[in-house]
Amino acid sequence: MQQTNLAKFQPVEVVTIDGRTVLNNSEEWRLCCEAVCVLRMYEADRAIHMHKVQQRRGDKGREYLQAELDRIEPAFVLGMENKHRRRSYLTAVEQGRGVTTRKNLERSIVRLWEERKRVSDE
């Protein structure tokens, strides 16, 4: 007896953490989901994960994921539920990646917040 699958997958549009609309079966969505999972890791675990990515996918694969992390991290931090969580995250960034990285991230967060505020005021 032949069985058929009546529930067929249909890709749908989803919104990424940084506001892009993509299909839920696209590489952009997969990469964004992976990046969010990595951003949720403690700094030490993140370093281990990135090392494993480099071993499995090579330098290009690591750079590909790192570029996505750098791009969406401001939106990730801005999306945190309260100021205490954001401050804790930025402190961990400073301890793990240095003062310069923290300051650059803070500037990116402020720019994103200002842009969102400007758009909502229009």
TL;DR of this structure?
The protein is mainly α and about 120 residues long.
Q: What labels would you give this structure?
A:
two-stranded antiparallel ribbon; about 120 residues; mainly alpha; globular; single chain; 4 helices
Question: Can you offer a commentary on this structure?
Answer:
The chain is mostly helical and 122 residues long. It has one domain. Helices cover 71% and strands 5% of the residues. The chain has 4 helices and 2 strands; from the N terminus they run E-E-H-H-H-H. Strands 1-2 form a two-stranded antiparallel ribbon. Helix 1 packs across helix 2, helix 2 packs across helix 3 and helix 3 runs antiparallel to helix 4. The longest helix is centred in the middle third of the chain and has 36 residues. The relative contact order is 0.10. The mean pLDDT is 93.
**Averaging pLDDT over every residue, what do you get?**
93
Order of helices and strands: EEHHHH
Biggest β-sheet strands, sense, barrel = 2 strands, antiparallel
Name the quaternary structure: single chain
